[in-house]
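Sample 3 of the quickstart, ligand histidyl-adenosine monophosphate:
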Amino acid sequence: MEIKAPRGTNDIMPDQAKSWYELEKKAVSLFERYGYGRIVTPTFENTALFERGIGESTEIVQKEMYTFTDKGGRSITLRPEGTAPVVRAYLEHNLSGQPMPVKLYYLGSMYRYERPQAGRCREFWQVGVEAIGSADPAIDAENILLLIHYLDYVGISDLKLLINSMGCEKCRPDFVSDIKKKLGKSKDLLCNDCKRRAEQNPLRVFDCKKSKCREALKKAPKISNYLCDSCSGHFDQVKSFLKEAKLSFEQDPWLVRGFDYYTKTTFEVISEELGAQNALGGGGRYDGLIEEFGGASTPAIGFAIGIERVLLALSKQQKKEKKMPGLQVFVIALGEKAKQKTFRLIYDLRKVGISADMDFQERSLKGQMKLANKRNAEFTVIIGSDELERNVCGIRNMEIGSQDEIELDKCVDWFEVNLCKKEQNIEKK
Ligand code: HAM
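Result:
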């Protein structure tokens, strides 16, 4: 019998593991730069943690959790997300004594029994952060900024940022009650699950993907019309910090997100490249969760990013740009003698770890230039008869267009220094 990997899971093979490792490494370096420290929590938790944390009537708790009874008779669940476990650990290890906000980040696998499709898996990986202990709108904006900074850092372009405010325990009840009334009028449109949700927890109808349920929500009241002074003041400040950072965003009054714990700011970053599963990452404020778990009333906010979706977006982007990855130096030779020098030079460059190539089709100067462009070379080196006579070569930085002329014997050293400098600058970005 042939045994295959379970549906919705992926093997990460050596060719992908490199990009995978890059994404993790960049998360670690960026999150630490923003003052977050790493936390590792167990892959499974007591089921009650998620039932209470995420909310009994959410899609995740109702339909998507991998729950089983262990040999000791306990109900155990593979974590479907990282926030509830981090909050549990924060309380269990009395981190409230530390200077606030306590900033924690995590990398790990999550499990949801969803219908697998591109960008939607049953085992998937997230990198995420939680900042516990600050109600300051600046930390909301910093979280959003960090999410965008990370996606930008790993090379994703064309992002759309959606934001909303979910209100608080003071202003949300009126909104929920009006949604309930509205849904009551279009009950016939709702699926059986949403009929129940409309009664128990009307906001969860927003999670339903069925077209009729979405239609029932059309013309539903908007939370923005219900926010109390404190919530709308908070939201205004978040927006003004985002504007200060020159981040463009769109307000989406339907951005409810699938967890009961959210209060005030919610946000999501989407990429049109991804099709139906277009959210690369998302998060929000959860000011009531720590109290819900028995701690003191403590505001908090965080987000998580899906690694599989980031990789998918990157690969679609690269296909579109038709990029051949990774060529650092293309050496252009003019004439047979120059070709001999070039042959030796690319070998020397490769020996010190620099990717280098040359023409093997007897192309003209123009043809070689074109090829260097097609290969997305970071630098081109030109060796012609004039250069050979003077024992020099011309170096062109293809990104900024600058030119240098250096001695041929110093060429490898020059690249070692300059490519290393460039990498350090990218790391710092
Ligand atoms: P989430 O929106 O459920 O939020 O997940 C965050 C990201 O994980 C999504 O934007 C997506 O990229 C990825 N993701 C979710 N489900 C799947 C799946 N089935 N397959 C592949 N990728 C997936 C949370 O998990 C919250 N805990 C975020 C948060 C942190 N809120 C506050 N703090």
